[in-house]
Amino acid sequence: MDADRIELMRGMPVFGGLGESALEWILEHAPERSVSAGDYFFKAGEPAESLFVLESGRAAVFLERVEGPCQLAVLGPGDCFGEMALIDFGPRSASVRALEDCLALEIPQGQIHALYQRDLKQFTLVQMNLARELSRRLRRADALAQENRGDLPPDHRYST
Q: Tag placement on the chain: N or C end, fewer CB within 10 Å?
């Protein structure tokens, strides 16, 4: 198994704390995906079936709006995206386009769910890590919404 990929995964919030055997098992079933600059990893509204780990290149996460695209983040090596696919069965909530030629590992939703059968403790750790990461991203989105409060429709409601 590629030690560099193990270290890449270990340094990510979603996979932090996982044992080497669990990381190796996940990586055994994670195909490489090359995406050329300007092409999409996926678009908002498409079925969500996997998480991506960016190994090289840069990619932009954005929403399509009537006024034009709204960039949410720029990702680089060691970042992951598409993690909502591991939690719910909804479509992609945003689009991700390669800004440069990119190489990523694609971790299928089913692979993480299969970890449940293989090692419940490691599966639980991934789920807790996912919840923490999604919470961090929600807090950033809340802060952005607060900054741009005038952009929200008058009937916008947010409850906790």
A: C
pLDDT class for 156, splitting at 50, 70, 90?
very low
From the number of C-beta atoms within 10 Å of its C-beta (0-12, 13-18, 19+), residue 99 rates as middle
Task: For residues 54 and 87, give the distance between their C-alpha atoms in angstroms, rounded to a whole number.
Answer: 19
- Show contacts of 17-21: CB within 8 Å, 24+ apart: 17/125, 17/129, 18/122, 18/125, 18/126, 19/122
- The answer to whether 76 touches 56, Cβ cutoff 8 Å, is no
Class of domain 3-133: mainly beta
User: 17 in helix, strand or coil?
Assistant: coil
Q: Can you tell me the distance from the alpha carbon of 133 to that of 136, in angstroms, rounded to the nearest whole number?
A: 5
Contacts of 90 (CB under 8 A, 6+ apart): 48, 84
The one-letter amino acid code at 152 reads: L
